[in-house]
Amino acid sequence: MAHDELISRITTDPKFLCGNPAIRGMRISVEQILNALAAGVPEDDLLQDIALLEPEDIRACLAYAASG
Questions:
Q1: CB 65 within 8 A of CB 55
Q2: 1, pLDDT greater than 90
Q3: Domains assigned to the chain
Q4: CA distance 38 to 12
């Protein structure tokens, strides 16, 4: 998946999560995913624990942080 396609999975809405970046308009923040990864939570665990999360969402969070 291209970088721009990944980044398009990240949304912001002032009415949603106080305008913080979220994944595909869901109540899953980029910060939440990045903090979990930084704490050593394996991607597979995140995907199991957060039913709507997709592998591309995790890559989108990383791409978003890197473009920062």
A1: no
A2: no
A3: 3-67 (1.10.10.10)
A4: 22
